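Subject: Predicted fold for Nitrogen fixation protein NifU, 148 residues

User T.R. writes:
Posting the sequence so we have a shared reference for the thread.
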Amino acid sequence: MDIKQLYTDLILEYNQDATNRRTIENPTVHEHGHNPNCGDDIDISMVVENGVIKDIAYTGSGCAISQASTAMMMELVKGRTLEEARHLVNLFLGMIRGDVTDDSQLEELEAACTLKDISKMPVRVKCAVLAWHTLDMILDRLGKDKKK
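User M.O. replies:
I've generated the structure tokens; pasting them so everyone works from the same file.
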């Protein structure tokens, strides 16, 4: 199987993954993300206890790349500390920008590292980063609330 087929199969698999596609009752934090260019629209809810992401889920709609990227991100950050989640967000965004290219570093992203070639498709970049930017906003807000 060639790499393009593997990439396509993985995106289709994660696009269909409904594991974290649900609503969380009484989340610690909630954020809306929207990509006006193509209509991708997500809502991320998260339960945080003692600095750890105990639960994370999303609802919304969008193209296969945005939905797959969201599912990959959820799988990756659930159970991690907020600091670990911040590191993974920065690593993913660095990968998409082309700033991080070392495969040994990118392995931390698990399935999400398969999206590294999205940077070669500028029109799809916003689709891939929507959930990651939305999580980044959540982490910023949680960081500000903590400082109060």
